[in-house]
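B., you asked whether I could sanity-check this one before it goes into the benchmark set. Here's the sequence:
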Amino acid sequence: MEKLKVVSPFRLSSLLRLQKDPKLALQLFLNPNPDKPKPFRYSVLSYDLIISKLGRAKMFDEMEQIIERLKRETRFIPKEIIFCNIIMFYGRARLPDKALRIFAEIPCFRCQRTVKSLNTLLDALLNCREYDKMREFLVGIDKYVCPDVCTYNVLINAYCKSNDMGNALNVFDEMQKKGIKPNVVTFGTLINGLCVNSMLDEAFKLKEHMVKIYKVRPNAFFYVSLIKGLCRVNKVDFALKLKEEMLRYKVELDSAVYSTVISALLKVGRKGEVYGLLDEMRTNGCEPDKVTYNAMIYVFCYEKNFDSAFGVLNEMEEKGCKPDVISYNVIIHGLCRVGKLREANELFEDMPSRKCVPDVVTYRTLFDGLCDGAKFKEAAFILDEMVFKGYVPRAASINKFVSGLVQEGDIKLLWQVLDSLAKGNSIEVNTWMMVTSMVYKKDKLSNDSEFIDTLIMA
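And here's what the prediction gave me:
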């Protein structure tokens, strides 16, 4: 019988790298040589690999067991990147307290904290929207490490995301006082935050300041932020001038720029300019994508111009840009909003033949529209299909539907609907109480034990 090869520390690292299943990788790590029970000399690379595999798989209990084992190692000092990865995994999983704890424990592993682990922690807290905890770090940030431009960029981003532009600008001033030169990310984050908060004058002043003083050229992200901000307040002509500036400075225009401007033009009734922009897009090697077309569909539906909306849908298919579920949901919502329920239902039924599967938003939109239009039989059919697919209507929609059935006195259909809702476990206590109260007030089913049994079973 062939003797099994002994797994060496080097070979273990190779095997861990090849093993795709994190559970099997963990078994291999914990017991690399089943026939040789003596202690195994793990390498720092083996720890790095197994921690990364467990972290990506969100097997945090198992990962923490390995971390505790690593803490007891005396043969080497773990690299800081291992702890950066752990903090990142916790941040992605929305576990800010665990991220904070591992950052605090880094010295326990005899590893020195640097700005890398600090920035990783701040980014994890930002991902978890723990803005207050980030502000706490800002107060005593120098006691950990010397912050760099990335540190301040993350802090500025946090203030921008919490719509606190005053403090975002304060951090910007502070970094300059400390001699840290802002970079393209700093300016891009600030300008985007100013635009989102409708502080367009300040955004353009900062853009000018950036170019003249820091010699930083705006990139596509800057322009998209400014163009979106201008279009949000219907300053379409200024947005078009910025688009021309992008062309002059040879900044690559993508579909996001064109989609924003096209949507704005349609909203202010300047439809005639849209087709020129579409031609320009193609000339510049930027084909309209789903975002561009969906923006057009949205505006046409908002204006109740459904012929044009369907025209865009057909053009998408002709151009090889397959409409997605958002394209159909926007039109169905628009049709329901103006009471064109038959057309909405026809488009819904046509979706599978167009190779687009309705999602929960599609069903809810159509169900709500049918309920609002008192088309209860059609709504009941959609509801039954929703429940079969595992979708749940909004509670307010169910209550409105049930109330409408009771008011109409269609108790047979009401019984069927409650039966469907019961199958989907979608009857809330409030609905149960409302139905019971309404039915008894109308004195329709006070003696109908079958109906009461249905409610109890629900």
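One thing to flag: Residues 382-458 form one domain. Otherwise nothing jumped out at me.
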